[in-house]
């Protein structure tokens, strides 16, 4: 046996096999993906554009929702004459969440922001940072919408119904107003059958697919194609819409007037009838007054 | 062990058997090593990818609307799914084998934590055990990132290398043995015969057929040995004793060979007395054969006249006849 091993040990093919095994190990290591790069930031809810005043270090910060709308607004603002004179960069941020809204306005970071009035009043940012309402969307009614019957506002009616709400606790028509109604009717929210959606659009899709029986939302002209106005029940007469706030610490009338100007042209390019009906706040110092295209 | 040795010998003796056996065994070994390495690298890749993904998710946690029960937030499944598809889309562009299936605050089944659980719960516990997930220990809650990995080894064109190496080895062994065969002396390359010894009367030489070694032997022992071989072949099992007279037939054979030597011109002397000095003759023969056969024990057993062992060289029962001799073993040239 020892002789056998000694023979094996001294044989040339043992060396060959050993080297081959080593090479094969190395080849095997090469096969799979070798260069795994770190994931970059996948969500980047902001964009910048530079104006003609290259040496100007000031930035005009816009905070509003929706990537496509924010991009559009960013382009419009970047072309504006007054902005080009006063700012070097226009920076848009559309990562809207309640936490971000509070930081943006509470810290006075945003120069122009699309915010709900209830949040603005809660933050008292108008007094703290000099935010001024420049334009607003009209007030609207809040409805319970159903597909095949008119919702009744009684406690019993909601017992066996699946209700669709908007997930964000700052949404008025889709969250606050219906929850206020349920509390007023003496229903326990945690015991109710509530499904949440992230947007009003998604809420409508849920209703059509039959995932929920009733949704709480606003009524817009486009809805007539999908739902019947007869099968809606108003739960709040007037919910104030969102508004554009401009931070004006000084008497910067040029900026105020041009902001009204570009917000109007931005509203014109919207597809939704509701967002087209932007109204300007009263500002006697500007030429265009209350030129809401309605 | 002897079985192993014989098997080894058998394999050694056949070039083709040897080559094919090395081919097959090396192929198995090479593929084993290759796949081991491949699996090792693949697992490493999966681990690294998972680590990268988990790092990204951990960094993005503040902007992912995941359920936060401690804040009574229900989370936004839709947006999480959009985020996951962003992750997976990036992974696809990189050719990653790992996909995120969900980011959640509860594992699909945590029933196995209960002390008494039903069979159904047991099976779902098994399901959970099979799940591939990483845990992020976040504020007030754990977040589980569930993965779906493609465990299949990426067998590409590189997988032909083990086969190539085995073919190389096969070729080398075959080529090398063929070369060896070519280099062997002519007489060794002859097909194997049982021939052990050639006695050449013309040159008075004993030649080993295996090693080719030669040793001269003087006239008298040469004739005696030739006669001994021929006599023992003719009379198997015969008993030749030092103390008895040699058989007539034996003496005639010896004389015959001696006459042949005279014919060949090796001697002109009258024939010697083959019966005298038997001991001396035998020991000369033994010495010569010892010289010819060297380490070849098998040949010695057959062709060296046995020595008296133990009972004394003058023992009455000792026989110096060649017991195992056969016509095939010895070739006498110039008879």
Question: What is the topological layout?
Answer:
The complex is a heterodimer of chains A (294) and B (335).
Chain A: H1 2-10, H2 12-30, E1 46-50, E2 59-63, H3 67-79, H4 81-86, E3 89-93, H5 98-106, E4 112-116, H6 117-123, H7 125-129, E5 131-136, E6 140-146, E7 163-166, H8 172-184, E8 194-197, H9 200-209, E9 214-218, E10 232-239, E11 242-247, H10 253-268, H11 273-276, E12 279-280
Parallel strand pairs in A: 2-3, 2-4, 7-8, 7-9
Antiparallel strand pairs in A: 1-3, 4-11, 5-11, 5-12, 6-9, 6-10
Chain B: H1 2-13, H2 15-60, H3 77-94, E1 98-104, H4 119-130, E2 132-137, E3 142-149, H5 161-183, H6 186-189, E4 197-200, E5 205-208, E6 214-216, H7 219-234, H8 248-263, H9 278-293, H10 297-303, E7 330-333
Parallel strand pairs in B: 4-7
Antiparallel strand pairs in B: 1-3, 2-3, 4-5, 5-6
Helix pairs in contact in B: 2-5, 7-8, 7-9
């Amino acid at each position: 046996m020892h002789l056998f091993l000694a023979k094996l040990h001294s044989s040339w093919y043992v060396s060959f096999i050993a080297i081959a095994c080593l090479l094969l190990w190395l080849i095997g290591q090469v096969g799979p993906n070798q260069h795994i790069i770190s994931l970059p930031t996948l969500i980047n809810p902001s964009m910048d554009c530079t104006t003609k005043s290259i040496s100007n270090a000031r930035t005009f910060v816009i905070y509003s929702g929706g990537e496509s709308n924010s991009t559009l607004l960013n382009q419009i603002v970047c072309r504006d004459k007054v902005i080009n004179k006063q700012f070097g960069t226009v920076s848009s941020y559309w990562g809207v969440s309640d936490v971000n809204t509070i930081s943006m306005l509470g810290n006075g970071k945003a120069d122009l922001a699309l915010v709900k009035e209830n949040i603005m009043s809660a933050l008292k940012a108008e007094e703290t940072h000099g935010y001024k309402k420049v334009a607003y969307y009209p007030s609207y009614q809040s409805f319970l919408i159903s597909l095949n019957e008119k919702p009744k506002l009684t406690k019993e009616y909601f017992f066996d119904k699946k209700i669709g709400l908007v997930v964000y606790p700052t949404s008025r028509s889709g969250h606050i107003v219906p929850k206020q109604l349920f509390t007023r009717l003496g229903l326990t929210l945690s015991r109710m059958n509530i499904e949440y959606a992230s947007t009003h659009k998604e809420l409508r899709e849920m209703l059509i697919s039959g995932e929920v029986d009733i949704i709480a939302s606003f009524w817009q002209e486009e809805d007539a194609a999908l739902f019947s106005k007869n099968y809606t029940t108003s739960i709040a007469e007037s919910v104030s819409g969102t508004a554009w706030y401009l931070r004006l610490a000084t008497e910067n009338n040029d900026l105020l007037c041009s902001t009204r100007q570009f917000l109007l042209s931005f509203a014109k390019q919207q597809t939704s009838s509701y967002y087209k009906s932007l109204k300007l706040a009263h500002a006697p110092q500007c030429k265009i007054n209350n030129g809401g295209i309605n | 062990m002897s079985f192993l040795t014989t098997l080894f010998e058998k394999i050694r003796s056949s070039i083709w058997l040897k080559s094919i056996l090395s081919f097959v065994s090396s192929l198995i070994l090479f593929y084993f090593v290759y796949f081991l390495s491949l699996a090792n690298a693949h697992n490493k890749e999966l681990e690294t990818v998972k680590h990268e993904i988990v790092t990204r998710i951990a960094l993005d946690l503040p902007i992912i609307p995941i359920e936060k029960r401690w804040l009574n937030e229900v989370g936004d499944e839709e947006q999480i799914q959009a985020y996951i598809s962003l992750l997976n889309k990036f992974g696809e562009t990189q050719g990653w084998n790992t996909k995120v299936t969900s980011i959640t605050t509860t594992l699909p089944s945590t029933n196995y934590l209960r002390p008494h659980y039903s069979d159904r719960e047991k099976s779902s516990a098994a399901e959970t055990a099979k799940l591939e997930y990483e845990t992020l220990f976040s504020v007030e809650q754990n977040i589980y990132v569930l993965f779906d990995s493609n465990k299949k080894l990426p067998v590409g064109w590189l997988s032909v290398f083990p086969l190539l190496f085995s073919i190389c080895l096969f070729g080398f062994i075959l080529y090398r043995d063929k070369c060896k065969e070519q280099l062997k002396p002519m007489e060794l390359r002859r097909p194997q015969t049982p021939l052990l010894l050639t006695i050449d009367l013309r040159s008075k030489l004993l030649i080993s057929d295996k090693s080719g070694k030669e040793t001269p032997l003087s006239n008298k022992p040469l004739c005696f040995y030739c006669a001994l071989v021929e006599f023992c072949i003719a009379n198997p099992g015969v008993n030749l004793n030092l103390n008895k007279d040699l058989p007539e037939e034996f003496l005639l054979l010896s004389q015959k060979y001696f006459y042949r030597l005279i014919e060949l011109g090796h001697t002109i002397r009258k024939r010697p007395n083959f019966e005298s000095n038997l001991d001396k003759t035998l020991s000369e023969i033994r010495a010569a054969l010892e010289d010819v056969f060297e380490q070849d024990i098998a040949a010695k057993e057959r062709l060296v006249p046995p020595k008296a062992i133990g009972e004394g060289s003058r023992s009455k029962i000792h026989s110096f006849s060649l017991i195992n001799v056969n016509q095939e073993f010895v070739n006498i040239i110039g008879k």
